Amino acid sequence: MTFNQPQTLKNISEIIGARMVGADDFPVLGTNEIHRVKAGEIVFVNHPKYYDKALNSAATVILIDKEVPCPIGKALLVSDDPFRDFNKINTHFTRLTHFTEELHDLEVGEGTHIHPTAVIGNDVKIGKNCLIYPHVVIGDRTVIGDNVIIQSNTVIGGDAFYYRKLNGNFDRLISVGNIVIEDKVEIGNGCTIDRGVTDATVIGEGSVLDNQIQIGHDTIIGKKVLIASQTGIAGCCIIEDEVTIWGQVGMASGVHVESGTVILAQCGVNRSLKKGTYFGPLAEEFKQYLRKEVKLKNLE
After folding, report:
1. What is the per-residue pLDDT for 103?
2. Which of 93, 126, 148 is the last residue of a domain?
3. What angle do CA 232, 233, 234 make, to 5 degrees?
4. Is 6 helix (H, G, I), strand (E, B) or coil?
5. Which of 67, 101, 200, 287 has its Cβ near the most Cβ atoms within 10 Å?
6. Which of 157, 154, 142, 161 is nearest to 234 (CA)?
7. Are 13 and 77 in contact (CB under 8 A)?
8. Dihedral angle at the C-alpha atoms of 65, 70, 74, 77, nearest 10 degrees?
9. Where residue 47 sits, what CATH number does that domain have?
């Protein structure tokens, strides 16, 4: 999430009540999660397992729950609860409306048809010659390109499924990112695509999604990707161009799938995949899977 205008370390420190390590006027440009963070942005870390990763990331400011040496050229915000304070920063700089306010700042291109039963949030941009079918929901800050089709009962821009367990309850990391749907994308009926926590969930140009597909927060779908029905893709995945994913595939968080890969129906993807064809409950190269099945059959 990029701030509307650059902030200073002192300003951010005062917003969340955290101790700062760095100059008062140290520039801060926004916030982001570890897998998408860029120079100038804040990343939070609240587990020793990830301290080194956060401190050595591209982040310029690290919101952390431990006193540690500050890396050269960076700054620290030391907090007793980085998760809570990351939410404070994001909600301070992002207007959350939850469909409770009147529509504002909607841009719609020439030739686009939006069915009257569609519900559209705030600060949404829709390109030219798009078709938005009945009962589609489009959340705040969504950006849709030209010649896009979104069929009935699809929800674009729901909250990320991102929680921690705190005092026996589930505490949400609030989603302030958005969704970007590029040109010539077709999305079927009853799909759900979650917006990014702090960045964008992206559906690349020319991709086609069947019915009843779930795509998690901050996932990037490349160009001309084909996804069949009842596929579930977790958050923070990268699906490169021209990948084919058949029905009922389940994909774990953080998976990276190379261009041109084919994932056959009911495949479970629990790791990143090189280009190839995969099948099985724990995604195996298809020919290898068949050889194994033959061997098992011969044992009988």
Report:
1. 73
2. 93
3. 115
4. strand
5. 200
6. 161
7. yes
8. 30
9. 3.40.1390.10
Sign of CA dihedral 194, 195, 200, 202: positive
Are 123 and 264 found together in one domain?
yes
User: Which tokens is 284 given?
Assistant: 């195996």
Q: Using the 3D structure, point to which of 59, 93, 127 is the last residue of a domain.
A: 93
Of 116-125, 217-226, 287-296, minimum mean pLDDT range: 287-296
Report, as an integer, the average pLDDT of 95-108: 86
d(C-alpha 136, C-alpha 155), whole Å: 6
73-86 mean pLDDT: 97
Instruction: Estimate the crossing angle of helix 82-93 against helix 9-16, to 10 degrees.
Output: 110
Q: If pLDDT is split at 50, 70 and 90, which confidence band does 210 have?
A: very high
Domain that holds residue 75: 2-93
Contact 253, 271 (CB under 8 A): no
pLDDT digits (tens, 9 = 90+) for 243-273: 999 999 999 999 999 999 999 999 999 999 9
Name the residues annotated as catalytic. Answer: 217
Q: How many CA atoms lie within 13 A of 156 on its CB side?
A: 37
Q: What is the DSSP letter of 49?
A: G
- Give pLDDT, residue 300: 66
Structure-block tokens of residue 13: 């420190």
Residues in the chain: 300
Q: Are residues 166 and 79 in the same domain?
A: no
Confidence at 228, pLDDT banded by 50, 70, 90: very high
CA 44 to chain centre: 17
Q: Please, are residues 267 and 283 in contact by the beta-carbon 8 Å criterion? A: yes
pLDDT digits (tens, 9 = 90+) for 189-202: 999 999 999 999 99
Are residue 127 and residue 271 in the same domain, yes or no? Answer: yes
Q: Is residue 102's pLDDT more than 80?
A: no
The SS3 call for residue 25 is: coil
